[in-house]
Specification:
The protein is an alpha+beta fold. The protein is built from 3 helices and 5 strands. The strands form 2 sheets. It has a 3-stranded antiparallel beta sheet with strand order 1-2-3. A two-stranded antiparallel ribbon has the order 4-5. The termini are close together.
Length: 170
């Protein structure tokens, strides 16, 4: 029980040490930056940027959601200008304006379905057959059973692991 207290105290000390080394600062652009301050091999302070926290911005023209709904259009199939939002490599939200020009596939003439013959069930059954196979007594796969030798090996392995763990943690 005493060793558990030592381990818990050591982990708490490590967590406190790491917590003391991180800091948040505001850069020249007004973004909040999380930094880690450590010492390099020469003992000089070194700063590493962990994350830049940005504020959320709204899309252009008050657009909400990933795709803006275009204004009502006429019945003709002319080009439609729309705006959608995406993110760039830095994670900033970007509103992109694009034009959709619809194209329609040419319709093909109706092709007739080839004529067929409906045959009676008894005629079909005589063509196909009943597909019954004679039962073979010895062709079944034998049922799986645990052999007693493997049970002894597994018990010995578990006892060895438990004994080793008892020696290591005692």
């Amino acid at each position: 029980m005493r060793s558990f207290a030592y381990v818990a105290a050591f982990l708490a000390l490590c967590a406190r040490s790491v917590s003391a080394q991180t800091t948040t600062v505001v850069d020249a652009l007004g973004e909040t930056v999380v930094e880690l301050i450590t010492l390099d091999l020469q003992g000089l302070p070194s700063t590493q940027t962990l994350q830049t926290l940005t504020t959320t911005t709204t899309a252009a023209d008050g657009q909400q959601g990933p795709v803006g709904q275009p204004a009502a259009t006429a019945t003709d199939a002319g080009p439609t200008i729309y705006t959608y939002t995406t993110t760039d490599a830095a994670g900033d939200t970007v509103a992109v304006v694009d034009t959709f020009t619809p194209t329609f596939a040419a319709t093909s003439p109706l092709s007739s379905i080839p004529a067929g013959t409906v045959i009676p069930y008894s005629s079909w059954l005589s063509l196909v057959g009943t597909n019954t196979v004679a039962a073979e007594v010895n062709s079944a796969v034998p049922r799986w059973a645990l052999q007693h030798q493997w049970l002894g090996i597994a018990t010995s392995l578990c006892a060895g692991v438990a004994g080793g763990a008892w020696l290591a943690f005692a």
